[in-house]
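Lecture notes, continued. The same structure-token format from the folding unit now serves as the input rather than the output. Read the line below as a description of shape only.
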């Protein structure tokens, strides 16, 4: 990876994530009191595997070339329970305080998840406060297409010994 040192530090943020999300709905009929119903036609899933990522620095849109701000394109190849690729954009911010930075990113994943094909969008929000990492990667609601329509969940990224892997907890309506 030939990324700027701050960008590399920001990317290392991707070592922890929030827990999985679930779905609940409220059903109401005109003649009956309101009841809470747990959606029963949504299956929980868990996918793991590895991925390669290529980060390519992009030129700044303004001419000031502020060294604390950066923009990169993302290209990933997923292997394992999720087979496919993604393309996306990342915005980064570094500070003068060592170990403090942040990034946001959006990527469109195209592939096959446990035998079901389609696309979906992942939204990343990462911060590092003096070395303390926090990362959330969430499926954008209603972004799933084809056999992945209705997909929801969160992804954890693990970086160990220079290798990247993912742990993806998700819910998905049954196949039709």
């Amino acid at each position: 990876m030939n990324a700027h040192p701050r960008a590399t530090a920001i990317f290392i943020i991707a070592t922890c994530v929030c827990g999985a999300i679930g779905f609940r709905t409220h059903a109401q009929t005109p003649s009956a009191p309101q009841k809470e119903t747990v959606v029963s036609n949504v299956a929980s899933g868990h996918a793991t595997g590895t991925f390669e990522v290529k980060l390519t620095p992009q030129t700044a849109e303004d001419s000031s070339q502020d060294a604390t701000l950066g923009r990169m394109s993302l290209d990933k190849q997923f292997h394992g329970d999720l087979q496919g690729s993604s393309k996306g954009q990342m915005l980064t911010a570094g500070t003068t305080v060592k170990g403090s930075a942040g990034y946001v990113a959006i990527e469109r994943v195209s592939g096959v998840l446990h035998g079901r094909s389609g696309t979906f969008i992942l939204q990343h929000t990462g911060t590092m406060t003096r070395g303390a990492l926090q990362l959330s990667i969430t499926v954008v609601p209603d972004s799933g297409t084809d056999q992945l329509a209705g997909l929801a969940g969160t992804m954890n990224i693990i970086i160990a010994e220079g290798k990247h892997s993912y742990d993806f907890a998700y819910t998905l309506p049954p196949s039709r």
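Point for the exam: Helices lie at 5-11.
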